[in-house]
Amino acid sequence: MLTTFQRRERILELLQQQHGLRVAQLAELLHVSQGTIRNDLRALGKAGRLTRVRGGAVLPSTQPVRGLAFAHRVQANAVAKRQIARWAADLVEDGDTLILDASTTVYDMAQFLRDRHRLTVITNGIEVALLLSQDPTNSVMLIGGLVRPDNASVTGLLGEALLKDLHVKRAFVSASGLTLSGGLSEDDFQEAQLKSRMIGCAESVVALVDSSKFGKQHLSSFARLDQVSHIFVDSGLAPHWIEQLQQTGTTLSICDTDTVSSYMPLSENRHYVIGFANLSEEVPFAVDVRRGLERAAKEAGNVDLVLADNQLDGQVAVEVADRLIAKGIDLAIEYQIDEHAGDLIMAKFRRAGIPVIAVDIPMVGATFFGVDNYQAGLLAGAALGNWIVEHWGGQFDRLIVLEEPRAGALPAARIRGQLDGLRDVVGELPPEKMVFLNSGNTVAVSEANTAAALRGMPGEHRLAVIAFNDDAAVGALAAARRLGRESDVVIVGQGADRLARPEIRRPGSRLIGSTAYMPEAYGARLIALALSILRGESVPPAVHMNHVFVNAANIDELYPE
Fold first, then answer.
1. Which pLDDT tens digit goes with each residue over 187-221?
2. How far apart are CA 546 and CA 532, in angstroms?
3. Chain mean position to CA 142
4. Which among 109, 125, 217, 470 is least surrounded, fewest beta carbons within 10 Å?
């Protein structure tokens, strides 16, 4: 066993060998829990030895910062800037078109974009351009003009002329000052002019401004607050700013290390504060649920969100519940995996008088929302059975079941549903042909456990696989592929999320399909359910999503690219 110091040094060595690693990968490689790895990454991140990104970490940029002035500004208010940058970066998706200014806060945000690909970036920041151009899938355009004395940015009329005919999805800018009357302002007149042209090219404008800049008016304003759709600030912001900024029509996100609180513009309707404790920011399905919730809250207009990450860890989920209660939330949406932690979490919310909606994993006393587990499983099991009848004459050598013991009885019904659906088509399932494995709810654990099982079945070539979720299904496929046994398996998943859809589209894939849970649609229904509860309306004890089995024949209709 490695000591803590040795393990963290090994993490840094692995990151030097491979650009970016996920938490689950590191846990498997180092034979420790994902919680241990997260603690290691947090410690290394605070020490400046790596950069946390969504789901894992990368090494800090090796590109040297040019110019002592810029390097000095990077260090000013560094903790606050990184809090802002980490959460603001989450607005960016693969393939987005962006304008980024030359500020140090936006440079910090660019560090968190190194796991995004196919970006089209227009910037006047030399450091930003150099950083993002390291990914060959990105297209980075440096605005022409005069190089500033700090050697870190470009200003001037040439840049303004170039911007005249451009149109991008989103502009990210910072500012030297922010006031209610003057909006965003800069000390440098040319810089302010260029930023004014930048925001004119964008569908929406996002301002990244640390709390030390609030209340300061500088020489030249470049944006009114009603031109800014979203402001990200660190947790040092004085409370009186919240309501004042809500009256301007902009969304305000106050960022801390582990949580972010988003306040919507004030409306005539009563505003509610809803806390969302997400399953994990490393699971694509859960990320899609959170993003849908953010969209729905914005559309509702009277919902402020406090977001946190349960990190697939029951103890963390208990701590998150305490933090949400301290934030004064009106209702909690709880998405966590540990059945045993659920009772303690519910006790805390009951004492605080806070109603709870439990997502996908039931909690006694909470309104349930999410998967109709048995029916979802039944669809996948029947599809697997039909494939076995068509391709293997209704026979199989072994059935591998990738389950998740922590989740409790109701989510386990999706496994039971798959078994019943398969049995309805192919007949009885002999116990001696069934192998039950722990999926760990992750790709990495599923891959490792499936690989070990396959090594013990060298002479068996008709292996059917059912999975707790798409992470488990993709992990099983990766194991078979790594061992050169892809043609021996046929796999069905649960979720049909963006992790599995590219594989389902691949001609001849042995992941033949997955039951769709539509995580992107959770948000609208969750917000509607939450508002009904908060208004005192009667709601059913359980609200289910509708399901469909997604395969190569219907995926383009259901999820057009």
1. 988 889 989 999 999 999 999 999 999 999 999 99
2. 20
3. 29
4. 217
